[in-house]
């Protein structure tokens, strides 16, 4: 007889085939007498190669089966109905024995067989080969690591306690420990649909922790998504990789913190680039917001969508911070272990302190973008304004960078951006830089100088009340009502950028101020008379600085003569008023 399988002709004998295949018996019986010696088989699973294996078995020839061809042979045998009822020890029975005794007991063979099932659907599914493979792989991945005796692929670094290099080993040569995620890399060979089913099966067994599942998803995405670690490749199949990212998001463990924030942000970047659905993006943003304190500045540098003028997607970061604020207000403070180890001194507000520092660094980076609008910078800064943090140095650097890259902004805009910063929280180094910074409004320079003086004299309780109204109005919380002697035009002058003479005067006086501050460190060894003299000198220096500022502005015609004389009167009064009070405080201490 002639059997046509696709484009291949097989010249065979009837008796060996019909004795083992019920389907061939039916096909031969159904053909008419004229063509009784030729039959056509077009839809056999596995094609001519699988049929050849079955034909050889019928002839009693030795058949070589392995992980690559066993599923095709099993499906072809099913198609040909090679059951035990036709003949004992038929092909279906023998293949099932081989699968159960060899293939499903092997880790790597089970993965190879699972890969071959995809081209043989729906036969492989109906014959439960797929489900047996899934159960075999998941059971091995869930087994105690001490019982892992088969080979596996592992090219990543092990932690010290797992690779035998930990000090606790004390030179004793013990067998290397099997890492918990030993199975992760081998599964990266699977296509995403089969990989999804394997991970779901592993989760169902409930013996693998969420952090290992998270590591598996991270490794798979790095392997299967081109450019995932540095930015998704432009020339890829968008439909294919969009499905991959959406599946990975769906598979993320429900436990909080088991997947790194860096991995989640890279997933979000890929989801935006591949135009994934809103559901996936919102889920990623929710998870990232919960772990935002873990993020780094580079993680947040997500490129803006095509057509946007800015370099980075600032709106996305704004949304993440707002989501973090909402989440923080609804949950107990600091429930992540990493916060306790990274910032124990911050107490219950540790997460907010870390996010504030993160956003300060982010603002400094995006400030370099010449197309970044002031409102986006300020809005992001205002979102974290309520977060208490010990230093505003990072925020000052960001503001200074923005002013440097955007020299054309107006006085009101400079005033608005500088309001984000609390001068009282600048370090001595930042204060020194700010006082000499020609990009800052003069109002801010005076505030910085005043608080540096307050810090140097350690008398912040009453110093502000002793200042004249025109100066007190410049300080945070100052009453503008007390400085009505200063005209509106003068108010604008204080918001202007200081002149070269102003900066020069401040430089000289600040040097004197710093010398006086250094001397105060040895007050414990001074006599009471020397303490009083030092205190008076500091008060005099502060008064001279304000006097020079006003005198400089008078020389440039920036304020009226009446305003200048009133202000000078106030400064002189400050000199006579504040010095005795400071002397009394120092003599009592």
Strand order of the largest sheet: 2-1-3
User: Over all CA atoms, what is the radius of gyration?
Assistant: 39 Å
State the helical fraction. Answer: 55-70%
CATH superfamily descriptor of the domain at 1-142: Potassium Channel Kv1.1, Chain A
Q: Helix/strand/pairing class, anyone?
A: mainly alpha
What is the C-level CATH assignment of the domain at 1-142? Alpha Beta
**CATH architecture verdict of the domain at 1-142:** 2-Layer Sandwich
Shape: elongated
Total helical elements: 29
CATH topology type of the domain at 1-142 = Potassium Channel Kv1.1, Chain A
Largest sheet, in brief, is: 3 strands, mixed
Number of strands: 3
Separation, N- and C-terminal Cα atoms:
117 Å
Strand content: under 5%
Mean pLDDT across residues: 76
List low-pLDDT spans: 159-174, 333-348, 462-474, 477-491, 514-541, 550-589
Describe the structure.
The protein has 589 residues and is mainly α. Among the domains are: 1-142, 2-Layer Sandwich (Potassium Channel Kv1.1, Chain A), CATH 3.30.710.10; 180-286; 291-329 and 346-421, no CATH class. It has 29 helices and three strands. It has helices spanning 14-18, 22-30, 47-58, 70-79, 91-101, 107-117, 123-126, 129-141, 184-187, 192-205, 210-224, 238-251, 261-273, 278-290, 297-300, 314-330, 337-342, 350-366, 374-383, 393-405, 411-418, 428-435, 442-457, 460-466, 469-472, 488-494, 500-520, 528-555, 561-588, and strands at residues 2-5, 8-11, 38-41. β1 (2-5) and β2 form a beta hairpin. Pathway: Protein modification; protein ubiquitination. It comes from Gossypium davidsonii. Residues 560-570 have a biased composition (Low complexity). Residues 462-499, 551-589 are annotated as: Disordered. This is NPH3 domain-containing protein.
């Amino acid at each position: 007889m002639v059997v046509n399988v696709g484009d291949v002709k097989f010249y065979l004998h009837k008796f060996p085939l019909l004795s083992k295949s019920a389907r061939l018996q039916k096909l031969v019986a159904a053909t008419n007498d004229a063509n009784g010696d030729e039959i056509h088989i077009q839809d056999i699973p596995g094609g001519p190669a699988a049929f050849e294996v079955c034909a050889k078995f019928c002839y009693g020839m030795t058949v070589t089966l392995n992980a690559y061809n066993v599923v095709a042979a099993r499906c072809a045998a099913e198609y040909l109905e090679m059951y035990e009822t036709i003949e004992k020890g038929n092909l279906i029975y023998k293949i099932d024995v081989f699968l159960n005794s060899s293939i499903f007991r092997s880790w790597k063979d089970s993965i190879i067989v699972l890969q071959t099932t995809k081209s043989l659907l729906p036969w492989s599914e109906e014959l439960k080969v797929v489900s047996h493979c899934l159960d075999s792989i998941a059971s091995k991945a869930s087994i105690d690591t001490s019982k892992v005796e088969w080979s596996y692929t592992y090219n990543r670094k092990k932690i010290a306690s797992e690779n035998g290099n930990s000090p606790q080993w004390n030179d004793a040569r013990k067998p290397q420990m099997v890492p918990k995620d030993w199975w992760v890399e081998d599964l990266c060979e699977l296509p995403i649909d089969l990989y999804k089913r394997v991970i779901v099966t592993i989760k169902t067994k409930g013996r693998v922790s969420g952090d290992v599942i998270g590591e598996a998803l991270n490794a798979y995405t790095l392997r299967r998504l081109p450019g995932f670690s540095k930015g998704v490749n432009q020339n890829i199949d968008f439909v294919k990789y969009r499905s991959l990212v959406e599946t990975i998001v769906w598979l993320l463990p429900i436990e909080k913190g088991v997947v790194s924030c860096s991995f989640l942000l890279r997933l979000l970047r890929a989801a935006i680039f591949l135009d994934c659905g809103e559901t996936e993006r919102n889920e990623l943003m929710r998870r990232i917001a919960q772990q935002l304190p873990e993020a780094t500045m580079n993680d947040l540098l997500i490129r803006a969508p095509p057509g946007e003028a800015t370099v980075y997607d600032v709106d996305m970061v704004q949304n993440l911070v707002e989501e973090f604020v909402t989440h923080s207000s609804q949950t107990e403070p600091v429930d992540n272990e990493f916060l306790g180890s990274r910032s124990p001194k911050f107490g219950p507000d540790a997460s907010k302190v870390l996010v504030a520092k993160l956003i300060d660094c982010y603002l400094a980076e995006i400030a370099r973008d010449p197309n970044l609008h002031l409102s986006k910078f300020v809005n992001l800064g205002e979102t974290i304004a309520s977060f208490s943090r010990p230093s505003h140095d990072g925020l000052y650097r960001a503001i200074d960078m923005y002013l440097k890259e955007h020299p054309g902004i107006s006085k009101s805009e400079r005033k608005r951006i500088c309001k984000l910063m609390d001068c009282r929280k600048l370090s001595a180094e930042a204060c020194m830089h700010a006082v000499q910074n020609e990009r800052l409004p003069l109002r801010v320079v005076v505030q910085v100088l005043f608080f540096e003086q307050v810090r140097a004299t350690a008398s912040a309780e009453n110093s502000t009340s002793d200042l004249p109204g025109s100066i007190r109005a410049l300080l945070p919380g100052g009453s503008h009502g007390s400085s009505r002697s200063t005209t509106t035009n003068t108010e604008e002058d204080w918001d202007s950028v200081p002149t070269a003479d102003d900066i020069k005067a401040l430089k000289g006086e600040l040097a004197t101020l710093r010398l006086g501050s250094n001397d105060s460190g040895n007050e414990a060894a001074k006599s009471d008379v020397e303490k009083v003299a030092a205190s008076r000198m500091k008060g005099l220096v502060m008064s001279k600085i304000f006097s020079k500022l006003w005198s400089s502005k008078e020389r440039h015609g920036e304020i009226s003569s009446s305003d200048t004389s009133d202000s000078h009167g106030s400064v002189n009064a400050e000199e006579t008023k504040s010095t005795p009070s400071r002397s009394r405080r120092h003599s009592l201490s």
